[in-house]
């Protein structure tokens, strides 16, 4: 396994993902991880990330001196390379010319094992983002490459297994970067690439069994990717010791509840308690129009109902959750301070502490792509594993203003048609998230010989990597025409369909 020490670069998570894509397990920790913890972790290699600071600044983040004496290979990226350079007597200075974006890396000297094959005709395109560079080469190192602006952009001490690169191999804009990281973890560090879906499942199953023993586990199943994969995995490990609670809040999509039951209870024989709580949710929401208040009402009622049901499973000792690695990193890495709360995204989280249950989080170390890969390996339906994200409050935040059953039924039918069309036209998997929104305003239309006065459905489809910023999807007119026609013809109560062409920011992805 590989240890990644984080100096605060916006790309650190990408390093971890690239390493995992090489089927090597890695963990990301803050740069000041104590040395004895590093020794206990026993990495086969260490990667030092980039970071926003300058190494020569007072109090700049640093690593323990002994880090380079552990006898394992170290790769320093950007700030990490500068840190390593200074440690070995090199000199880092502010660059006369900063370098951001594409650069042409020019080979010098022998490439050595890490850069073997990295250059084509002495060059390799890379992505740079730095204001400082290494001016004097550290002792014992040789220069592998530079650019016109910065003569020292890749260094190595092959004998000691120490490497530094000024560019960012972890981003897609460095075409051969993925290979470079792969070579580092596999060839230089000697990791074998055992981190495959089958192996992840096998390890997790063994761990769950060891942790839980003969005790009972309960899990709040929502039908979303994370809780579904957690359920399938835990069920594989402990079978009937797992009880799932699936709360149908009446704000799910068309037939969603039945699909969840079919997948888990019927096909896999998982014990699922289905709670039909539509009426309770709708009456709690009656007249509540404010988006944040709706979120609170839905979140609180969910916890209340989950507690009631879990209380009936009297011997439960464990609460399982589908927490994944990015959730862990985000809540631990709060050093930079989070942006203020635009929308409260409480999911199935925030479950009752006073229930005194032990927490089981089998996906805690996995990235979303890994969760999906093991979901497929566990035999979950493709459509469930590759589904767009669906917010915890469900249709509750896609019906603008006050929610009622009539609106929810109309929205469910419109959304189902939209999804069906996106699947059949092949757009679904090119879109990051798509859904229909119910607008409680009436507009005039004409159908046959009669005047209509009915509701409006808005269609949203966005492309995004991180859901922090998003662009609207350029849906072809012909597809929009077909979807609009079908919704207006097939969904009673709707006579107008509009397409949302706002990006985030300034709009958000959901309408509430
Ligand atoms: P926004 O609308 O903030 O959405 O651009 C970004 C992502 O978050 C999802 N979202 C939520 N997820 N509970 C959730 O679990 C919520 O209350 C919530 N609000 C938004 C949204 O679907 C998108 O993927």
TrEMBL record:
Cite the active-site annotation: 78 (nucleophile), 168, 170
Q: Name one GO cellular component term.
A: cytosol
Q: Name one Pfam family in it.
A: GMP_synt_C
Residues of the signal peptide: none
Describe the location of the GMPS ATP-PPase domain by residue ranges: 195-387
Query: What is this enzyme's catalytic activity, as reactions?
Result: XMP + L-glutamine + ATP + H2O = GMP + L-glutamate + AMP + diphosphate + 2 H(+)
Q: Report the HAMAP family cross-referenced here.
A: GMP_synthase
Q: What is this protein called?
A: GMP synthase [glutamine-hydrolyzing]
